[in-house]
Amino acid sequence: MRKNLFLIAGLLLVSALANASDPEEADSLIQLKGVVISANKVQVNRNSVPLSISVIERSEIDASSESALLPVLSQRVPGLFVTRKGITGFGVNTNSAGSVNIRGIGQGNKVLMLFDGQPQWAGVFGHSLPDTYVASDVERVEIIRGPGSLLYGSNAMGGVVNIITRRHRQQGRRTEARIMYGSYNTQKYMVNNGYNTGNFSSFASLNFDRTDGQRENSDFRIVNGFAKLGYQAGAHFRLQGDVSLAYYENQNPGPVDNPMFDNTMDVLRGTSSVSLVNTYEKSSGAIQVFYNWGRHEINDGYRTGGTPRSFRFNSEDHNMGILLYQTFRLAEGNSFTAGADYKNWGGHAWNDTINGPIGEIVNRSVNELAGYVIARQDLFGVLSLNAGLRFEHSEAYGNQWIPQAGLTLRLWEGNTIRALYSKGYRSPNVRELYISYPPYSIANPHLKPESMQSYELSLGQRIGDTFQAEITGFYLDAENLIAGVQGTLTNINALHNKGIEIEASYYPASNLQLTANYSYLHSDTPTEAAPTNKFFIEGSYRFSRLTLTANLESVSGLITVGGSEQDKESYTLLNAKASYLVGNKDKDFNFFVKGENLTATNYEILKGFPMPKATLMGGFQVAF
Q1: Spacing of C-alpha 391 from chain mean position
Q2: How many domains does the chain have?
C-alpha cells in the first residue's frame, strides 16, 4: 500500500511541476461573510435577519485539509461542540461520537443536520449521520445558533447545520485529487470533478478514509461517493438533483477499563434529492423531493469473560419528504415566504442470525405535515422586522405551533443590533416511541415533543474590510425533555441555559488573517458534551507560495459523555499546518503537512476513550 501511495505521489508531483508557472500575486485571505440563505430559504443579507448565523466558507474547509466536516465546525463556530473519540471516524450505536451540541443543546439529536435544506438523520433511532458529512462535497455551511424550527421543523430545537453542497459554476472542467497519510496508518484519498458547459453543470466526488486507530480494535474505514447534476432551463428555472452513498465499517474498543471485543458496525447510507428552483424579479422559491435511507448491521460484541454474540442487530430506515416554498417581494424592503412540508420517517429493526430473523423489534413510520409563513419588512433604512409562524401536525403526538419574532437595527455604518425570540422543538423518535430496552428504557407511545423557548440579543460591528466582530447573549428555557423515570421514558425534565458567544476576524494585511471565537455556557442542569468555556484562535500568514497556519483550542468545564459532574475535563490543544503551492490558478499542486495536539495533551470527550496525543498528517492536493 505504501509503495503504491508513494508511486502515485511521485507521478502527480512530476505532472504538477511540469505545469508550474511563474509565481503570481498571492490570493487575498480577506473573506467577509454577508449573505445567507438559511434564514428564509432565499438569499438575504445577513444584517437584515435577527438569527445568529455563523458561515463557514469553502476556502476555510479547503484550508483545513479535513475529510470530515464536523471537526472544522467544532473549531470555528462559537457555542458549537462536537463529540469525538479518535483520529477519524465517528460510528453509530452506543459509544458513538459525532453528536453536535449548540449552546448546551444537542444530545439526542436536538441539532438538525441538513443537506441543501433537507433533513438528514436516521429514521429509526433519530441520530445524525456524522460520517456522511464529507468536506469535499461542501460549498459552504450555515449554522443557526439557536432554534430553527420555524422553517425546518423537528430536531431543530438547539440549532441547524445547513450543509450546502457544491455546484460547479465556472465554464469548463476542473479536477482535484488529494492524498494524505499520517499517524496510526491513517490514509485519506479524495478525487472530484466539476464540469460546466452551457446550461448544464455537474459535480462528482469519491472519498476513501481508513485508520488503524490509536487503540487496539478501533479501526475504521469508509467510502463516500457524491454526484450532483444541474440544468438551467431558461431565465427562470433550474432543475437539479443529487445522490450520495456511504459505506463504512467501524469497530468500538469500549472504555479502556472495560474493553469490548467484536463490537463492529457495518453501515450503508444513501441520500438523493431532486429540486426545481424558480427565480423571478418579484418572487423565487423551489419544490424539493428528498429520500435518505440506511442499512445497519451491528454486532454488540462482548466484554472480558463474556462470549461472542449469536445474533446481530439489523435495521433499515428511511427519512423522506416533499418541501415547497415561495418568497414574494411585494414592495420595497418587504419579503413574504410561505411554505409547506410533508415528511415520513421510520423503519424496520430486528435481530438476525445466520439462519434468519429471530426477533422483531419495530416496524413503524410516522407522517408529519406542516405549513409556515415568515415576513420581513425594512423600515427607514435602519430597521428590519421579522416574524413567522409554523403549524405542524404529527400522527404520533398531534399539533404544534411554532412562533418566531425579531428585529435588526443598523444605527451607523457597519453596526448591527439583533433581538430574537424563537421556539424550537424535537419530535420523539421511533426508538423512544416504540422500542423498549428493559430495564434501561421502556418506550412510551404517548410522548410529547421536547420544546424550548429562546431569547437572544447581539451586537455586531464591521470596520471596512479589515475587522468584524459580534457578541451574543442568550437565555434558553427547555421543557418536556425526554428521560427515563423508573425505567420508563417520559416528558419531565426541564433545562435552563444562558451564556455569551463572541466571534471576530481581523485582517491586518491581505496575506495575514486572525480569527477567534469564544463561548461561555451556564446551565442549571449538568449536561454532557456542553463545555462551560470554549475558546479558539487562529492565525494564517501567506508569503508568496507558502502558507503557515497555527491555532489554539481550549475547552474547560466539560462533562464527558458517560462521565460525572465531579470529574470535569479541561484541555488545550495546539495545532499547526504548513502548505506550499506550485503552479497557478488553473493548474496547481499543493503540498502540506499538519500536526494536531502538538503538546500531546491527555484528554477525553467520551469517558474511557482517551483521544490521540500528538498526530501528524502529510499529503498533497493537485488541481487541473
Answers
A1: 26
A2: 1
